[in-house]
Amino acid sequence: MLSGRRYRLALTLEQEVMCEEFGNVCRAVWNTALEQRREYRRRGAWMNYAPQCAELADAKRDHPWLKAAPSHALQQTLKDLDRACREHGAFKVRRRSKARWSPSFRFPDPKQIQVERLGRRWGRVKLPKLGWIRFRWSRALGGVIRSATVSRKAGHWFVSFLVDDHAVTPERHAMPDTAVGIDRGVKAAAVTSDGDFHDRSFIRAGEAARYRRLQQRLARARKGSTNRRKTITAMNRIMGRVSDRRTDFCAQTACRVVARNALVGLEDLRVKSMSASASGTAGAPGVGVAQKRGLNRAILDKGWHRLELALSSAARYTGTTVVKVNPAYTSQRCSACGFVSESNRESQAVFRCKNPGCGHTAHADVNAAVNIKHAAGHAVSACGDLGASRSTKQEPISRATGRTSKTARSAAPGIPAP
């Protein structure tokens, strides 16, 4: 099984300059190749990895600065671009901006990578053109190295090894009859159907105050100046620590959840669309933009997508099945009787069923998590019904066949096969 191991590098001044140069060359190759693909698409033609790799070899004769970076790193950049264009399309793939993109490059050939342990806390790795580089030995490799990626984050350089740890996904979970539903929110990052609340603050009060001051300083700094670059570096360091805490929280939460449950249910949330910026309503531009901006920040701060990735990664080692369910009506449905009503949720935290024969009361997030757990174990219709009761939103039925139309079936999120 492939897994990642990241270590912090201790570069010399010469090696740091070389890494910066390698990153700039890879960025230039990415942007040039992307523009070439877009131009070919405008003319109705197609460009892929093989001809671009051949043209790169010819371009090195005309542009000697391309020879500064290792050939394998440049070829890997073209491979990454080819995969991105095939998955998303050439016009949806972003250019790599010098101001916003963090330098990174990959060495895909394990034969050119050598790792040695120097002591209890230090090791060293030999990479093409960079030579031997010391790094903090924070954990064992635990497998055979497949590739190495050098990247910069928050002012520090790191090396990430892709290793094969020879682990195999168990055919069956240790507790096969266990299941849990997880409701992701902005008050608590994750709430389980067992009643567990997983949450923490990722930025401290002092860091938030300093970050606001740096934002004010950045607004007054002249573009391209040294002070502006220093301010951005200081901001990146704060956000780097925040990002590391969020990653650690998601990883720990995912490990706890998959270790105890054979089935994990998650809402099929499109986080990118939910956190898209708002431009106001059509009739009144600018209305509600501030509120939407605050909601977007809260969604991104809790790391919904990162938790989903962490669960999928950790589930490989326990045999846990992660199922995405239709999120419709999970917060409005009573988990006890199945009654659906907008008035059931009285507030962010209070859920009280308005069905005269029920009256079930629970924490709103826990009730939603229980609904998600039930949906993860049963088929869910496209209109979001999780029980026997029916909602007013129904799929169109074909008069000729008496079945749901093909268009409606293709639009239904449903539950993927485990």
The biggest beta sheet is recorded as:
7 strands, antiparallel
* Number of extended strands: 14
Question: Helical stretch count?
Answer: 10
Percent strand equals 15-25%
- What is the average of the pLDDT values? 87
Question: In short, what is this structure?
Answer:
By secondary structure, the chain is of the alpha+beta class. It is built from ten helices and 14 strands. The chain folds into two domains: 2-164, no CATH class; 179-324, no CATH class.
Question: Any chance you could write out the topology, listing elements then pairs?
Answer:
Blueprint: E1 2-10, H1 13-42, H2 49-62, H3 71-88, E2 104-107, E3 114-117, E4 122-127, E5 131-136, E6 144-153, E7 156-164, E8 179-184, E9 190-192, E10 197-198, H4 205-220, H5 226-260, E11 263-267, H6 271-274, H7 289-302, H8 304-318, E12 321-325, E13 350-352, E14 361-363, H9 364-377, H10 406-411
Parallel strand pairs: 8-11, 11-12
Antiparallel strand pairs: 1-5, 1-7, 2-6, 3-4, 4-5, 6-7, 8-9, 9-10, 13-14
Helix pairs in contact: 1-3, 2-3, 4-5, 5-8
